[in-house]
Amino acid sequence: xxxxxxxxxxxxxxxxxxxxxxxxxxxxxxxxxxxxxxxxxxxxxxxxxxxxxxxxxxxxxxxxxxxxxxxxxxxxxxxxxxxxxxxxxxxxxxxxxxxxxxxxxxxxxxxxxxxxxxxxxxxxxxxxxxxxxxxxxxxxxxxxxxxxxxxxxxxxxxxxxxxxxxxxxxxxxxxxxxxxxxxxxxxx
Amino acid sequence: xxxxxxxxxxxxxxxxxxxxxxxxxxxxxxxxxxxxxxxxxxxxxxxxxxxxxxxxxxxxxxxxxxxxxxxxxxxxxxxxxxxxxxxxxxxxxxxxxxxxxxxxxxxxxxxxxxxxxxxxxxxxxxxxxxxxxxxxxxxxxxxxxxxxxxxxxxxxxxxxxxxxxxxxxxxxxxxxxxxxxxxxxxxxxxxx
Lengths: 188, 192
Prior knowledge:
heterodimer, A: 68% helix, B: globular
Protein backbone atom coordinates (compact mmCIF):
# COMPACT_ATOMS: atom_id res chain seq x y z
CA UNK A 1 0.00 0.00 0.00
CA UNK A 2 1.60 3.31 -1.00
CA UNK A 3 1.36 6.56 0.88
CA UNK A 4 -1.58 7.96 -1.07
CA UNK A 5 -3.57 4.80 -0.40
CA UNK A 6 -2.83 5.09 3.31
CA UNK A 7 -3.92 8.72 3.27
CA UNK A 8 -7.12 7.76 1.51
CA UNK A 9 -7.74 5.05 4.09
CA UNK A 10 -7.36 7.63 6.84
CA UNK A 11 -9.61 10.04 5.00
CA UNK A 12 -12.22 7.37 4.55
CA UNK A 13 -12.13 6.36 8.22
CA UNK A 14 -12.56 9.99 9.18
CA UNK A 15 -15.34 10.54 6.67
CA UNK A 16 -17.24 7.46 7.80
CA UNK A 17 -17.10 8.67 11.36
CA UNK A 18 -18.38 12.10 10.53
CA UNK A 19 -20.75 11.73 7.61
CA UNK A 20 -24.18 10.32 7.21
CA UNK A 21 -24.94 9.11 3.70
CA UNK A 22 -23.25 7.48 0.73
CA UNK A 23 -19.59 8.09 -0.04
CA UNK A 24 -18.77 10.29 -2.98
CA UNK A 25 -15.90 11.10 -5.31
CA UNK A 26 -12.43 9.82 -4.59
CA UNK A 27 -13.42 8.00 -1.43
CA UNK A 28 -16.10 6.02 -3.28
CA UNK A 29 -13.49 5.05 -5.87
CA UNK A 30 -11.00 4.13 -3.15
CA UNK A 31 -13.47 1.70 -1.61
CA UNK A 32 -13.57 -0.17 -4.91
CA UNK A 33 -9.88 -0.93 -4.67
CA UNK A 34 -9.32 -1.34 -0.90
CA UNK A 35 -10.80 -4.39 0.78
CA UNK A 36 -10.30 -3.08 4.34
CA UNK A 37 -12.04 0.19 3.55
CA UNK A 38 -14.77 -1.66 1.70
CA UNK A 39 -15.52 -3.57 4.91
CA UNK A 40 -15.58 -0.34 6.90
CA UNK A 41 -17.88 1.27 4.36
CA UNK A 42 -20.18 -1.73 4.42
CA UNK A 43 -20.30 -1.65 8.20
CA UNK A 44 -21.07 2.05 8.10
CA UNK A 45 -23.80 1.79 5.51
CA UNK A 46 -25.37 -1.05 7.44
CA UNK A 47 -25.49 1.13 10.54
CA UNK A 48 -27.12 3.90 8.56
CA UNK A 49 -29.71 1.47 7.23
CA UNK A 50 -30.51 0.40 10.79
CA UNK A 51 -30.74 3.99 11.87
CA UNK A 52 -33.13 4.83 9.08
CA UNK A 53 -35.20 1.73 9.69
CA UNK A 54 -35.63 2.62 13.32
CA UNK A 55 -36.63 6.21 12.61
CA UNK A 56 -39.66 7.03 14.75
CA UNK A 57 -42.79 8.09 12.92
CA UNK A 58 -44.48 11.15 14.33
CA UNK A 59 -47.86 10.22 15.83
CA UNK A 60 -50.66 11.31 13.53
CA UNK A 61 -52.74 14.26 14.73
CA UNK A 62 -50.48 14.80 17.69
CA UNK A 63 -49.73 18.40 16.83
CA UNK A 64 -53.30 19.76 17.27
CA UNK A 65 -53.85 18.84 20.92
CA UNK A 66 -50.26 19.64 21.78
CA UNK A 67 -50.50 23.09 20.22
CA UNK A 68 -53.80 23.83 21.97
CA UNK A 69 -52.18 23.01 25.27
CA UNK A 70 -49.09 25.09 24.47
CA UNK A 71 -51.12 28.18 23.52
CA UNK A 72 -53.39 27.82 26.56
CA UNK A 73 -50.40 27.59 28.89
CA UNK A 74 -48.64 30.45 27.14
CA UNK A 75 -51.73 32.67 27.55
CA UNK A 76 -52.03 31.70 31.19
CA UNK A 77 -48.36 32.56 31.71
CA UNK A 78 -48.92 35.87 29.94
CA UNK A 79 -51.92 36.73 32.15
CA UNK A 80 -49.91 35.82 35.22
CA UNK A 81 -47.06 38.07 34.21
CA UNK A 82 -49.48 40.97 33.54
CA UNK A 83 -51.10 40.46 36.93
CA UNK A 84 -47.81 40.31 38.70
CA UNK A 85 -46.62 43.38 36.80
CA UNK A 86 -49.51 45.34 38.39
CA UNK A 87 -48.29 44.58 41.88
CA UNK A 88 -44.78 44.35 43.15
CA UNK A 89 -42.75 42.15 40.87
CA UNK A 90 -41.49 38.82 42.00
CA UNK A 91 -37.96 40.13 41.96
CA UNK A 92 -39.01 43.18 44.01
CA UNK A 93 -40.78 40.99 46.55
CA UNK A 94 -37.73 38.81 46.75
CA UNK A 95 -35.54 41.85 47.35
CA UNK A 96 -37.98 43.12 49.97
CA UNK A 97 -37.81 39.84 51.84
CA UNK A 98 -34.04 39.89 51.58
CA UNK A 99 -33.88 43.47 52.89
CA UNK A 100 -36.14 42.59 55.83
CA UNK A 101 -33.90 39.68 56.68
CA UNK A 102 -30.80 41.86 56.53
CA UNK A 103 -32.46 44.54 58.70
CA UNK A 104 -33.48 41.96 61.28
CA UNK A 105 -29.95 40.62 61.40
CA UNK A 106 -28.54 44.13 61.68
CA UNK A 107 -30.91 44.93 64.53
CA UNK A 108 -29.89 41.76 66.35
CA UNK A 109 -26.22 42.63 65.93
CA UNK A 110 -26.87 46.19 67.15
CA UNK A 111 -28.64 44.98 70.28
CA UNK A 112 -25.79 42.61 70.94
CA UNK A 113 -23.21 45.36 70.52
CA UNK A 114 -25.16 47.68 72.82
CA UNK A 115 -25.40 45.05 75.53
CA UNK A 116 -21.72 44.32 75.26
CA UNK A 117 -20.86 48.01 75.32
CA UNK A 118 -23.03 48.58 78.37
CA UNK A 119 -21.30 45.78 80.23
CA UNK A 120 -17.94 47.20 79.30
CA UNK A 121 -19.00 50.68 80.52
CA UNK A 122 -20.06 49.22 83.84
CA UNK A 123 -16.89 47.25 84.15
CA UNK A 124 -14.88 50.28 83.22
CA UNK A 125 -16.68 52.38 85.84
CA UNK A 126 -15.98 49.84 88.56
CA UNK A 127 -12.36 49.68 87.57
CA UNK A 128 -12.22 53.46 87.65
CA UNK A 129 -13.75 53.56 91.10
CA UNK A 130 -11.31 50.97 92.30
CA UNK A 131 -8.44 52.89 90.86
CA UNK A 132 -9.50 56.24 92.39
CA UNK A 133 -9.93 55.00 95.94
CA UNK A 134 -6.33 55.45 97.05
CA UNK A 135 -6.32 58.98 95.59
CA UNK A 136 -9.50 60.36 97.22
CA UNK A 137 -9.08 58.88 100.64
CA UNK A 138 -6.78 61.00 102.67
CA UNK A 139 -6.52 59.80 106.27
CA UNK A 140 -5.12 62.11 108.86
CA UNK A 141 -3.24 60.59 111.88
CA UNK A 142 -5.98 61.67 114.36
CA UNK A 143 -8.89 60.39 112.34
CA UNK A 144 -10.92 57.30 113.17
CA UNK A 145 -12.24 55.24 110.33
CA UNK A 146 -14.65 52.33 110.30
CA UNK A 147 -14.30 49.90 107.52
CA UNK A 148 -17.35 47.76 106.95
CA UNK A 149 -16.77 44.80 104.79
CA UNK A 150 -19.53 43.81 102.46
CA UNK A 151 -18.77 41.04 100.03
CA UNK A 152 -16.61 42.42 97.30
CA UNK A 153 -16.84 46.01 98.48
CA UNK A 154 -16.38 47.88 101.72
CA UNK A 155 -17.87 50.98 103.27
CA UNK A 156 -15.46 53.41 104.73
CA UNK A 157 -16.83 55.69 107.42
CA UNK A 158 -14.93 58.70 108.73
CA UNK A 159 -15.89 59.53 112.30
CA UNK A 160 -15.41 62.98 113.88
CA UNK A 161 -15.36 62.89 117.66
CA UNK A 162 -16.60 66.48 118.17
CA UNK A 163 -19.99 65.90 116.61
CA UNK A 164 -20.07 62.10 116.71
CA UNK A 165 -21.57 61.83 113.32
CA UNK A 166 -20.79 60.38 110.07
CA UNK A 167 -19.39 63.11 107.93
CA UNK A 168 -18.25 61.19 104.92
CA UNK A 169 -18.96 57.84 103.36
CA UNK A 170 -17.03 56.23 100.58
CA UNK A 171 -17.75 52.99 98.91
CA UNK A 172 -14.58 51.34 97.91
CA UNK A 173 -13.40 48.04 96.67
CA UNK A 174 -11.59 45.69 98.93
CA UNK A 175 -8.42 45.30 97.07
CA UNK A 176 -4.98 44.61 98.16
CA UNK A 177 -3.69 48.10 97.43
CA UNK A 178 -6.11 49.64 99.95
CA UNK A 179 -5.14 47.18 102.66
CA UNK A 180 -1.55 47.80 101.87
CA UNK A 181 -2.25 51.52 102.27
CA UNK A 182 -3.62 51.05 105.80
CA UNK A 183 -0.79 48.80 106.76
CA UNK A 184 1.65 51.41 105.57
CA UNK A 185 -0.11 54.13 107.60
CA UNK A 186 -0.09 51.98 110.75
CA UNK A 187 3.55 51.32 110.25
CA UNK A 188 4.23 55.04 110.20
CA UNK B 1 -58.45 34.16 6.23
CA UNK B 2 -57.72 31.76 3.39
CA UNK B 3 -55.29 34.27 1.92
CA UNK B 4 -53.64 34.66 5.29
CA UNK B 5 -53.23 30.92 5.66
CA UNK B 6 -51.90 30.54 2.14
CA UNK B 7 -49.40 33.30 2.81
CA UNK B 8 -48.39 31.66 6.03
CA UNK B 9 -47.80 28.28 4.44
CA UNK B 10 -45.55 29.72 1.76
CA UNK B 11 -43.65 32.14 3.96
CA UNK B 12 -40.09 31.38 5.06
CA UNK B 13 -39.33 31.00 8.75
CA UNK B 14 -37.89 34.49 9.08
CA UNK B 15 -41.15 36.07 7.92
CA UNK B 16 -43.20 33.84 10.16
CA UNK B 17 -41.06 34.79 13.13
CA UNK B 18 -41.69 38.47 12.50
CA UNK B 19 -45.39 37.94 11.99
CA UNK B 20 -45.63 35.76 15.07
CA UNK B 21 -43.95 38.47 17.09
CA UNK B 22 -46.57 40.92 15.86
CA UNK B 23 -49.19 38.62 17.30
CA UNK B 24 -50.35 36.71 14.23
CA UNK B 25 -51.53 33.41 15.64
CA UNK B 26 -51.68 31.53 12.30
CA UNK B 27 -48.09 32.52 11.56
CA UNK B 28 -46.99 31.35 14.97
CA UNK B 29 -48.82 28.06 14.63
CA UNK B 30 -47.37 27.38 11.19
CA UNK B 31 -43.89 28.23 12.41
CA UNK B 32 -44.02 25.57 15.08
CA UNK B 33 -46.03 23.07 13.05
CA UNK B 34 -43.44 22.85 10.30
CA UNK B 35 -40.74 21.88 12.84
CA UNK B 36 -42.89 19.58 14.90
CA UNK B 37 -41.85 16.42 13.07
CA UNK B 38 -38.11 16.89 13.46
CA UNK B 39 -38.52 18.09 17.03
CA UNK B 40 -40.48 14.97 17.88
CA UNK B 41 -37.97 12.63 16.22
CA UNK B 42 -35.07 14.27 18.01
CA UNK B 43 -36.85 14.11 21.36
CA UNK B 44 -37.80 10.51 20.72
CA UNK B 45 -34.22 9.52 19.94
CA UNK B 46 -33.07 11.22 23.13
CA UNK B 47 -35.74 9.80 25.41
CA UNK B 48 -36.67 6.48 23.87
CA UNK B 49 -40.44 6.57 24.10
CA UNK B 50 -43.37 8.40 22.57
CA UNK B 51 -44.96 9.94 25.63
CA UNK B 52 -41.76 11.41 27.03
CA UNK B 53 -40.88 12.71 23.59
CA UNK B 54 -44.25 14.47 23.25
CA UNK B 55 -43.89 15.93 26.74
CA UNK B 56 -40.44 17.28 25.83
CA UNK B 57 -41.71 18.78 22.58
CA UNK B 58 -44.61 20.38 24.41
CA UNK B 59 -42.34 21.88 27.06
CA UNK B 60 -39.91 23.04 24.40
CA UNK B 61 -42.60 24.61 22.25
CA UNK B 62 -44.07 26.39 25.24
CA UNK B 63 -40.69 27.90 26.04
CA UNK B 64 -40.28 28.77 22.37
CA UNK B 65 -43.62 30.58 22.27
CA UNK B 66 -43.03 32.44 25.53
CA UNK B 67 -39.49 33.47 24.58
CA UNK B 68 -40.00 34.08 20.88
CA UNK B 69 -39.32 37.78 21.39
CA UNK B 70 -35.83 36.87 22.62
CA UNK B 71 -34.93 35.02 19.41
CA UNK B 72 -32.20 37.27 18.04
CA UNK B 73 -31.87 35.74 14.58
CA UNK B 74 -28.18 34.91 14.96
CA UNK B 75 -29.03 31.27 14.26
CA UNK B 76 -31.86 29.99 12.13
CA UNK B 77 -35.16 29.44 13.88
CA UNK B 78 -35.03 25.67 13.43
CA UNK B 79 -31.69 25.43 15.24
CA UNK B 80 -32.92 27.72 18.01
CA UNK B 81 -36.08 25.68 18.50
CA UNK B 82 -34.25 22.35 18.42
CA UNK B 83 -31.87 23.60 21.06
CA UNK B 84 -34.83 24.40 23.32
CA UNK B 85 -36.48 21.06 22.65
CA UNK B 86 -33.31 19.05 23.22
CA UNK B 87 -32.71 20.90 26.49
CA UNK B 88 -36.29 20.14 27.51
CA UNK B 89 -35.69 16.50 26.57
CA UNK B 90 -32.51 16.36 28.63
CA UNK B 91 -34.31 17.95 31.57
CA UNK B 92 -37.13 15.47 31.20
CA UNK B 93 -34.66 12.61 30.89
CA UNK B 94 -32.89 13.70 34.05
CA UNK B 95 -36.19 13.87 35.89
CA UNK B 96 -37.51 10.53 34.79
CA UNK B 97 -34.29 8.81 33.83
CA UNK B 98 -34.27 7.15 30.51
CA UNK B 99 -37.08 4.67 30.44
CA UNK B 100 -37.21 2.69 27.24
CA UNK B 101 -40.67 1.23 26.91
CA UNK B 102 -40.09 -0.67 23.75
CA UNK B 103 -42.52 -3.47 23.02
CA UNK B 104 -41.16 -6.65 21.60
CA UNK B 105 -43.91 -6.91 19.00
CA UNK B 106 -43.72 -5.77 15.41
CA UNK B 107 -44.27 -2.15 16.31
CA UNK B 108 -47.16 -1.65 13.93
CA UNK B 109 -49.36 -0.13 16.58
CA UNK B 110 -46.93 2.17 18.35
CA UNK B 111 -46.12 4.77 15.78
CA UNK B 112 -43.27 2.85 14.25
CA UNK B 113 -43.62 2.61 10.52
CA UNK B 114 -41.44 1.29 7.75
CA UNK B 115 -39.18 3.79 6.07
CA UNK B 116 -38.02 3.73 2.47
CA UNK B 117 -34.72 2.27 3.58
CA UNK B 118 -36.29 -0.51 5.56
CA UNK B 119 -34.81 -3.73 4.27
CA UNK B 120 -36.57 -7.03 5.00
CA UNK B 121 -33.23 -8.78 4.66
CA UNK B 122 -32.12 -7.24 7.91
CA UNK B 123 -33.84 -10.26 9.35
CA UNK B 124 -35.04 -8.53 12.51
CA UNK B 125 -38.34 -7.43 13.87
CA UNK B 126 -38.69 -3.69 13.98
CA UNK B 127 -39.42 -3.72 17.68
CA UNK B 128 -36.17 -5.51 18.38
CA UNK B 129 -34.25 -3.17 16.16
CA UNK B 130 -35.79 -0.20 17.86
CA UNK B 131 -34.84 -1.57 21.24
CA UNK B 132 -31.29 -2.25 20.11
CA UNK B 133 -30.85 1.27 18.77
CA UNK B 134 -32.33 2.68 21.92
CA UNK B 135 -30.00 0.64 24.11
CA UNK B 136 -27.03 1.72 22.01
CA UNK B 137 -28.00 5.38 22.31
CA UNK B 138 -28.51 4.97 26.04
CA UNK B 139 -24.89 3.88 26.35
CA UNK B 140 -23.75 7.29 25.15
CA UNK B 141 -23.55 10.16 27.59
CA UNK B 142 -26.44 12.64 27.32
CA UNK B 143 -24.33 15.36 25.70
CA UNK B 144 -22.78 13.02 23.14
CA UNK B 145 -26.18 11.50 22.42
CA UNK B 146 -27.54 14.98 21.84
CA UNK B 147 -24.71 15.77 19.44
CA UNK B 148 -25.20 12.61 17.44
CA UNK B 149 -28.99 12.86 17.30
CA UNK B 150 -28.85 16.47 16.14
CA UNK B 151 -26.52 15.36 13.38
CA UNK B 152 -28.08 12.08 12.28
CA UNK B 153 -31.74 12.80 12.96
CA UNK B 154 -32.10 16.57 12.59
CA UNK B 155 -29.35 16.77 9.97
CA UNK B 156 -27.85 19.89 11.48
CA UNK B 157 -24.41 20.90 10.26
CA UNK B 158 -21.34 20.80 12.52
CA UNK B 159 -21.55 24.56 12.84
CA UNK B 160 -25.22 24.49 13.80
CA UNK B 161 -24.64 21.77 16.38
CA UNK B 162 -21.72 23.75 17.75
CA UNK B 163 -23.98 26.80 18.14
CA UNK B 164 -26.76 24.68 19.53
CA UNK B 165 -24.62 23.08 22.20
CA UNK B 166 -22.20 25.94 22.76
CA UNK B 167 -19.19 23.83 21.71
CA UNK B 168 -16.21 24.27 19.42
CA UNK B 169 -16.66 22.55 16.06
CA UNK B 170 -13.71 20.28 16.79
CA UNK B 171 -15.47 18.94 19.88
CA UNK B 172 -18.61 18.32 17.83
CA UNK B 173 -16.62 16.34 15.28
CA UNK B 174 -14.79 14.25 17.85
CA UNK B 175 -18.05 13.50 19.61
CA UNK B 176 -19.65 12.42 16.36
CA UNK B 177 -16.76 10.14 15.54
CA UNK B 178 -16.81 8.59 18.99
CA UNK B 179 -20.59 8.16 18.99
CA UNK B 180 -20.59 6.57 15.57
CA UNK B 181 -17.91 4.05 16.53
CA UNK B 182 -19.66 3.23 19.76
CA UNK B 183 -23.07 2.79 18.15
CA UNK B 184 -21.70 0.67 15.33
CA UNK B 185 -19.85 -1.56 17.79
CA UNK B 186 -22.96 -2.01 19.86
CA UNK B 187 -25.02 -2.91 16.82
CA UNK B 188 -22.46 -5.27 15.32
CA UNK B 189 -24.18 -8.34 16.61
CA UNK B 190 -27.43 -7.74 14.83
CA UNK B 191 -26.15 -8.27 11.33
CA UNK B 192 -28.60 -10.43 9.78
